[in-house]
Amino acid sequence: MNRTAERVLSIIAVVMSAVGTIFAFIGMGFFNLMKNDPAIRQEMEMEFMADPTMTPSDIEAIFTFFDVIGGVMWLIIIAMILSIILNIIGIVNIWNNKNAKLAGIMFIIAGVLAGILSLSSILLYIAAILCFTKKPPLQEDIQFANQPHDGDTMRPL
Q1: CB under 8 Å to 119, separation ≥6 — which residues?
Q2: Rounded distance, CA 157 to CA 117, Å?
Q3: How far is CA 38 from the centre of its chain?
Q4: DSSP characters over 54-112
Q5: Which terminus of the chain has a lower count of CB atoms within 10 Å, N or C?
Q6: Distance, CA of 109 to CA of 113 (rounded, Å)
Q7: pLDDT higher for 135 or 23?
């Protein structure tokens, strides 16, 4: 059976996820640089102290929030990497029509991990739906293929 649509959609999704993961690594590097550089931290503290409504505990809460954001960003990067791995497993399973249902399940899980409504996850959802709904073409029954068909007789199922 021809599974070209699933292949194309999943390959586009894996490329988009890989590019997103690379940009996430770059963004995480800049975020860590800004968070850990003492000169940038001191400059930010000076800006916050210039605001009369900010207290030192508020400033410390902001920097604690930056630490939490860094952890969440690492979680997102790990989820994107897992999405790429599951997507590749799905592509391998669909490549030679090995197991379309397993590939569909892998595509759905990879889509959830890539971001529930991102463009790459939507492509993976479409590929998964195609994996589940495409059925192999029916082959005619060989024993009844040579018999003439008239409208009055019933054909076998």
Answers
A1: 16
A2: 43
A3: 36
A4: --HHHHHHHHHHHHHHHHHHHHHHHHHHHHHHHHHHHHHHHHTTS-HHHHHHHHHHHHH
A5: C
A6: 6
A7: 23
